[in-house]
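Hi C.,

You asked whether I'd gotten around to modeling the 119-residue construct. I have! Everything is below, sequence then structure, no commentary in between.
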Amino acid sequence: QVQLVESGGGFVQTGGSLRLSCAVSGPTLLGMGWFRQAPGKEREFVACLSATTPSTHYAEAVKGRFTISRDTTKNTVFLQMDRLKPEDTAVYYCAAGTYSTLARNYPHWGQGTQVTVSS
């Protein structure tokens, strides 16, 4: 059984940085994704990382500011978020499954971590 536990959310000012972590237990050869959901909005794709290659993909809104990576020795996936904007405010979710931009391709989800960016 796959379990995902996110951490690293918090409150930051515009232009600041945060690094989210997602600790993975269980099978680790999975595609990993980060999604986010702002109040009153649908969950949206942020970034994903292939299970077996260095391939990554980013939403246009975060491209060049966010970086997804994996530490295989610690079974942890990271989302480095730089130059944060108020519109990045959301609950961020880590997901495991098939390398994809679609939430339905990820059967395993973490509980979410809040990121708040002040203007």
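If it helps when you're writing up: The chain has a mean pLDDT of 95.

Thanks,
B.
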